[in-house]
Amino acid sequence: MSHLPGFRPRNDGWTVVVPVKRYAVAKSRLASYAGPHRPGLARAMGLDTIAATLRSPAVAEVVIVTNDSDATHVLNDLGAIVVPDEPDLGLNQALVYGWLAARERRGRAPIAAMLADLPALRPDELAHALTLAADHQTSFVSDTPAVGTTLYCTMPGADFVPAFGGPSRLAHLSGGAVELDGTDIPTVRRDVDTEPDLREAALLGVGPHTREILAALETVHG
């Protein structure tokens, strides 16, 4: 893999790898609620998630893995490093590819993998989660229902074996990762796949892009 262009990262802090699915096919479970706004909603949630991640004081750099051309331009402008999803074999393979890119850029920095559908994410809560993660070689944060995973963290020298999708909490536990206390980080845990998830995220306070789409949806649903 050749050296990747992009912004010069700080010497300290985490690299966060975020996979971004093509907006045209993302968040299919929200189709019945969002209708024609679904691609825009997926885009908005991704923008709010990544903008919050870039503002987190624990984060030195964000690496995006995507084949969506719109995401590439917009997220580069935000300050993220964007690499193509060359494997194009699904979520976990994309994350491993992003991890390799991150390791090439920053040597032995700690690296985390995070989902792109955390529209209520707060930079300080992410920083708290990453601070907790620094005490373990491999760790993770479960989603709000404690079934899936939203954040998977590895320290330098640890194996990077993400197991996102389905009951990934158990998969990460079985792989030896430590589950981090999610008491004080509700916005790190609230991913969005369904309409009830979206409403819970809205109660936590979503970012401006998602808020704009929600306002448009409220005019449709009344």
UniProtKB/TrEMBL annotation:
Broad class of enzyme this protein falls into: transferase
Pathway: Cofactor biosynthesis; coenzyme F420 biosynthesis
EC annotation from Swiss-Prot or TrEMBL: 2.7.7.105
PANTHER family, alphabetized: 2-PHOSPHO-L-LACTATE GUANYLYLTRANSFERASE
InterPro entries (UniProt xref): CofC (IPR002835), Nucleotide-diphossugar_trans (IPR029044)
Function according to Swiss-Prot or TrEMBL: Guanylyltransferase that catalyzes the activation of phosphoenolpyruvate (PEP) as enolpyruvoyl-2-diphospho-5'-guanosine, via the condensation of PEP with GTP. It is involved in the biosynthesis of coenzyme F420, a hydride carrier cofactor.
Family that this chain belongs to: Belongs to the CofC family.
Protein name: Phosphoenolpyruvate guanylyltransferase
Organism the protein comes from: Tenggerimyces flavus
Domain of life according to the entry: Bacteria
Keyword annotations: GTP-binding, Nucleotide-binding, Nucleotidyltransferase, Transferase
Example GO molecular function: phospholactate guanylyltransferase activity
Binding site for phosphoenolpyruvate: 149, 165, 168
Catalytic activity as recorded in UniProt: phosphoenolpyruvate + GTP + H(+) = enolpyruvoyl-2-diphospho-5'-guanosine + diphosphate
